[in-house]
Model the fold of this input.
Amino acid sequence: MKKFINSPDTVVRDALFGFAAAHPDRLCVDVERGVITRAERPRAGKVALVSGGGSGHEPLHGGFVGPGMLDAACPGEVFTSPVPDQMLAAVATVSGGAGVLFVVKNYTGDVMNFEMAAELAAEDGIEIATVLVDDDVAVRDSTFTAGRRGTGATLFVEKIAGALAEQGADLAAVADVARLVNERSRSFAIALEAGTTPAAGRPGFDLADDEIEVGVGIHGEPGRSRETIRPARDLAARFVDSVLKDLPLSSADPTIVLLNGMGATPLLELYLLFGEIAALLEERGVVITRSLVGNYVTSLDMAGASLTICRADERLIELWDAPVHTPGLTWGG
Amino acid sequence: MKKFINSPDTVVRDALFGFAAAHPDRLCVDVERGVITRAERPRAGKVALVSGGGSGHEPLHGGFVGPGMLDAACPGEVFTSPVPDQMLAAVATVSGGAGVLFVVKNYTGDVMNFEMAAELAAEDGIEIATVLVDDDVAVRDSTFTAGRRGTGATLFVEKIAGALAEQGADLAAVADVARLVNERSRSFAIALEAGTTPAAGRPGFDLADDEIEVGVGIHGEPGRSRETIRPARDLAARFVDSVLKDLPLSSADPTIVLLNGMGATPLLELYLLFGEIAALLEERGVVITRSLVGNYVTSLDMAGASLTICRADERLIELWDAPVHTPGLTWGG
Amino acid sequence: MDTVTTDLVLSWLRTVDERVREHADELTRLDSAIGDGDHGSNLHRGFVAVTAALTRSSPSAPGEALTLAGRTLISTVGGASGPLYGSALRAAGKTLDGVEPMPGELLQALTAGLEAVRKLGGAVPGDKTMVDAFTPAVEAFAAALRAGSGLPAASAAAADAAEKGARSTIPLTARKGRASYLGERSQGHEDPGAVSTALVFRALADAAAD
Amino acid sequence: MDTVTTDLVLSWLRTVDERVREHADELTRLDSAIGDGDHGSNLHRGFVAVTAALTRSSPSAPGEALTLAGRTLISTVGGASGPLYGSALRAAGKTLDGVEPMPGELLQALTAGLEAVRKLGGAVPGDKTMVDAFTPAVEAFAAALRAGSGLPAASAAAADAAEKGARSTIPLTARKGRASYLGERSQGHEDPGAVSTALVFRALADAAAD
Ligand SMILES: Nc1ncnc2c1ncn2[C@@H]1O[C@H](COP(=O)(O)OP(=O)(O)O)[C@@H](O)[C@H]1O
Ligand SMILES: Nc1ncnc2c1ncn2[C@@H]1O[C@H](COP(=O)(O)OP(=O)(O)O)[C@@H](O)[C@H]1O
Ligand SMILES: [Mg+2]
Ligand SMILES: [Mg+2]
Ligand SMILES: [Mg+2]
Ligand SMILES: [Mg+2]
Done:
């Protein structure tokens, strides 16, 4: 394993120092407590958005803290959900009196740790709502299992709910739109190579020179099946079929499409793959209303990509277009 | 080699289709002629900035086309400079009558192809100025060799000269500021793994499990020396020492610092490395006035990073802060 | 001497710390196969913090020690195992009254711990989780006490049962936690949390044997 | 028949296309060692386009064919080799008058081509570039003509000299082009452009031998 680190034990802490140094004007990084917040103090009466999860998915979540998106992010150890203390510290810092929305990716650990934090915050009299993001169609949803994973749709939820919160909506409304976005979003991922966690020191799974892992998650979990590499055109069909199967779309639906790199896939390949996906979507009568191509919800140095589509409507597109100013996502006035 | 491609021969063309599909509102992609321009027609009287180079360095250059930066980019084949026909087509499309600045990275092929285009454009009565970017301190500069390579400083040159052009400055002034930025910028890169071109199908060079390539370029050229991997803290010193040796800085100099990922390095590691570099710069009395951490001037799926520092002044910082709206770089109103 | 002294509990927790350290790589390897490869470092981080916390505050009763350990795990581990082990130890600690409770009281505490895990995680035996080691361990501990064994023998029986329970997860299809994403591909691998639970019970047996 | 017919030039250029195709991987491998690994695909792309352009416009004179080939290389190859080979062929083509020039005129054309490369790239023999194959090839061609050889023998001598020149680049330290970034680490590798230049001259010899 070759990485720009000092020691596997101090990766997240050391990276937080760098995060602070890189964004001194816009972010406040509390390295000791593991909390990233906006530089400005919370606006009274604004619903606060707090998210977090294991590190290794950057720019998610710390890179999405800023006007128009998150108020705080709690980075856990690599691929390990944060602890309740972090969420409580975040809530204490960013709560503006109008309640706090926890945006939680649906993983057992994340769910439990955020739940514990929510209970403790509620005991302190702070109103907490939680949205669980579970968009990954590679995982069968069932009440007997851990349910679908949260992946690319997290960006959609954080962006759109963040925009509504910025407009002054109340907690119920912000939580509602967050849930709506999640319900209408589905993702599917394919890996060409696994990523390597500093702690494990070797790839999460080994693939032969012509093998790919289909239906992978963002934590180096192996996927649903191992298959043979095929031209981008064919893989594009695999992405599109998998997502559309779970998310039927008509040509009347506006959509937001994210083609996300997992960390080690060059932008050149992502654009190429996006071209194939866009052509397929057009064939099937799906209109791409907004799109995003790049590394947003990564898995360390995994080579691969995920496709996320949100079946939007006019209001969601408007919220998507609202200004956002974060290290990882910026547009609007 | 596992990549999201259809065939090594059609990578750039196929990717251009995706680039067009991803940015229909802001960019115009002429796939046949290999030219990316802004969606809006050229403003009369504005100096036009045209750049280009081999593909595989995305978002450079196509991702830097847009208000506040480039008017056009000419993507060559992977790691191969574009042909003069592309630059001529770009000039014909974006020339607003006030002359055109070619931003050229100093590689034999790029220099020759842009030179040929400049001669032919001049024959057509279009005023062309050229800035050669040569910031890489790993290469010894001498009139008997090809000279220093152009790497990270290209982003600084395109951003700052683009801002001045947007303000309506004339060609001489825009070319002057471009050259000034180049003269005041230096870069140094270290690779942990080489990238793989689709044509070659295997990494540009092979490194053992504990080896790194120090002083590499952005085309998979091997570097100056092969060394043993060390903690990020020690490598940070290597980056800082190499750059500062060639670019003496006093604490009175404002600086712009780019810590650039080569394509396959996770943002988590880049931030960590930036933290170490920022600490070292502080120790040496260097003030980081502006910074950028991310994958901007990449080398396909090379794992590694480059540090670029520009010894700026108030005016350059102002131009840096001016609004920019491109797929790869966005800020300001 | 067949009571659960504070020293015994402290020795137990310190032994867990040691065993987790020794087996961290193995736990991580198991977690890499069907999870995300962090179980070893998660528990290692947690129990190092537990040892530090216990040294700092030197608790004067077994229940206090377990509660502190649980709280510390919750605050330092994260992931799925942090809240689960943390809640288990906290629930166990809260159940354990007095300075020298009897083995029967420890059984109640362990039962409360298991209940906390099952309530928080919703897993039942057969789901391929730590519950598959925890449940038989508690049952074996209960059975041994019923049969008249003392603390050392009951703890050893619990450890044996936990190890057997861990091995029994190999053929199972995971239905809870990260391994459940793999569906049938999770078969043929031992659950890392079940293995770490077996380490915890073996540590109890070794501490009680001294 | 010892004149430079249009057919001969077309056959030469077609042969270069074939040889480049056959040796593309080798050229790329050489370029990977001390460059950026694209020399094979660059020339392959270029000469495929040359063959297509020649088929499309069937030139009626040798000079016309070479000029068209040069222009096509400039418009399709890019990199360093595109302008260099393109300018060489264009300069050679412009020098070559009439429909059946004599071998001495081909020598002038080749000399003009070499001059174009040296002027554009600024490389001198010993810099570890295509000039190290091109220069001795032209010299050998001239010497052979002076010694009374016909076109086939002169071309074969040029090809031999080009191959020897290419091999002579192995110990050199590159001073021009991408390999110069390596400094002394470029030693021990054959220059890809010198090798492709040898292919070009061998193709001429084979075309002239028919
Ligand atoms: N719902 C659950 N109930 C009980 N145990 C669980 C549950 N989910 C996960 N586990 C246990 O947690 C272990 C994984 O812990 P760890 O790797 O530390 O956390 P994470 O899965 O968040 O990375 C699994 O091997 C399993 O034994
Ligand atoms: N200045 C120069 N003069 C002559 N030949 C050169 C010069 N620079 C490069 N070359 C030749 O070009 C070859 C490389 O061509 P190619 O790989 O196609 O272009 P690039 O270096 O742009 O990738 C080198 O092997 C060398 O022979
Ligand atoms: Mg984890
Ligand atoms: Mg090249
Ligand atoms: Mg785990
Ligand atoms: Mg080359």
Notes: The pocket of magnesium ion (ligand 6) is lined by residues D 31, 35-36, 38-39, 79, 178 (CB under 6 Å). The mean pLDDT of chain A is 96.
